[in-house]
Specification:
By secondary structure, the protein is an alpha/beta fold. About 45% of the residues lie in helices and about 15% in strands. It has one domain: TIM Barrel, CATH 3.20.20. Helix 1 links the parallel strand 1 and strand 2. Helix 1 runs parallel beside helix 8.
Amino acid sequence: MVGVSEAPRSGLIAILRGITPDEVVAVGSALVEAGFHAIEVPLNSPDPYRSIELLATNFGRVCPVGAGTVLHPEEVERARSAGAEIIVSPDTHPEVIAATRALGMRSYPGVATATEAFGAIRAGARSLKLFPSTALGISGMRALSAVLPVGVELIPVGGVDESNLAEWRAAGAGGAGIGTSVYRPGDSAGEVRVKARRLSDIWASTL
């Protein structure tokens, strides 16, 4: 078994799919003010590396910034150059995990089975993106958590919203990736702030 240290706790991660550089600072400010713990810009967004750079410059000291939908090792280095500290992928790609670790960044590979989870752990990941979380559900996450090494956290992504966030946390999730429940393309910073505050309050009040 791969040795792992104390379990990380990622908290709430905002997934800003479709965000543009023109709006990212205002939206990022709203998320930070509302208490989100990290912000991810998927690479299939418009000009994603510029958005990552702007977020990292303005909020990187208080809120880690990540690149999402990272599929290739070369994207890891480019994201790091833009200021990203986190690399998030929809799949488990050992070379992406290795490249991320080599640059001192945190890797969040996507897993949906025990085989994928242990493959990601052996490659060096400690935070696993449970994706799509609806495939396993909360009971499935509990079952998977029971066999994972101490020091590995599961982050449900896909379908996490106000109606089930408390249940995911109570079941042991180390965090949650929140996409359309906190930001949809075209949302104003004010709209994001209201939704983010509700989600943050739920997370903070759940034991």
